[in-house]
Amino acid sequence: MTxxxxxxxxxxxxxxxxxxxxxxxxxxxxPILTIETYGSMSELTANHPEQFFHFFVAMNIxxxxxxxxxxxxxxxxVLTLSLDGGSQLSEFHCICINQPEQAxxxxxxxxxxxxxxxxxxxxxxxxxxxxxxxxxxxxxxxALIVQGYINKEIAxxxxxxxxxxxxxxxxxxxxxxxxxxxxxTIYAVMHGYVDxxxx
Length: 199
Known about the structure:
It is a single chain. The chain has helices at 16-29, 41-45, 59-64, 66-71, 101-115, 127-130, 136-146, 151-158, 162-176, 181-190, and strands spanning 8-12, 34-38, 54-58, 76-80, 93-96. It is of the alpha/beta class. The protein has a 5-stranded parallel β-sheet. Helix 7 packs across helix 10. The longest helix is centred in the middle third of the chain and has 15 residues, at 101-115. It is elongated.
């Protein structure tokens, strides 16, 4: 794969809402991905499955097409509905999609960091995404936000006023064009501002 190619990911799941949500989260976690979605195995096989870097697949589709996914085990991430992945799928990477957003984001970030050596195995991020956009103080505030501190605690820790924290928080969201703490968490971890083990 050359540096110019964007890794292609396939999401295979008949649940449209699940697919839309996962696609959005994955694009936040790894913006360089090209993500294609399929509602069934037949749709995937009709679209050259060998071109995909990874498959995010609903458990029932993996079970119905076990030979294909076992052969592609290193590329397959099974989407489960419970935290207990089930012993029958222990040979696969599994992600529980039935958990709070923050926990799901953390699972995706852990997968990206461990499977891809902190992104070393992926093409470089576009320059615009590598630029430092936030001031040092905004980075400090952001790091505390994604670690779960509330505004008052952030103000106390950084020895600044509560209104200053609120202003920093608004500026961070505006500068990054983000609307949720989950998106902010992804940004902070992917840029190395926060250790994933602290969220």
